[in-house]
Amino acid sequence: MSSDDVLRLEGVSHAFGDTRVLDEVNIDAKPGELLCLLGPSGCGKTTALRLAAGIEELQQGRITLSGQTVAAPGLHVPPERRSVGMVFQDYALFPHLSVLRNVQFGLSDLDAAAKRKRAGEALEQVGMSAYGDSFPHMLSGGQQQRVALARALAPQPRVLLLDEPFSGLDSNLRAHIRDETLHVVKDSGTTTLIVTHDPEEAMYMADRIVVMNAGRVEQIDRPDKLYTAPANAFVTTFFSSINRLEGTVRGGAVATPFGPLAAAQLGEGIRVEILIRPEALRVAPFTGVLPAGAARAHVLDARMLRRASFIHLCFGEFEGQHLHFHSREPGRLMPQIGDHVAVTLERAQTFLFPLTEKGA
Amino acid sequence: MSSPSLAESAAVPAFRGRRLFNGWTAFTFVMAALIALPVVVVLSYVFVPSGGIWQHLASTVLPGYITTSLWLMVGVGLGASVIGVGTAWLVTLCEFPGRRLFEWALLLPMAIPAYVIAYTYTGLLDFAGPVQSLLREITGWSHGDYWYPDVRSLPGAIVMLTLVLYPYVYLLARAAFLEQSVCVLEVSRTLGCGPWRCFSAVALPLARPAIAAGITLVLMETLNDFGTVQYFGVNSFTAGIYRTWMGMGEPAAAAQLAAVLTLFIGCLVLLERLTRGRGKVHHTTSKYRQLPRYRLNGGHALLALLANGLPVLIGFVIPAAVLAVWAWQTGPRIIDARFYAEARNSFILASLAAVFAVAIAMIMAYGLRLRRSRATTYATRIAAMGYGVPGAVIAVGVLIPLSQLDGWINDFTVAQWDVRVGLILSGSIVAVLFAYMVRFLAVSFNAIEASLAKVTIHMDDAARTLGHRPLGTLLRVHLPITKGSLLTAAILVFVDVMKELPATLLLRPFNFDTLAIRAYQLASDERLADAAAPSLAIVLVGIVPVIMLSVAIAKSRPGSEATQQERIAEAVMDKTAPGGVNLERA
Question: Quick check: B122 and B233 in contact, CB under 8 A?
Answer without folding.
Answer: no
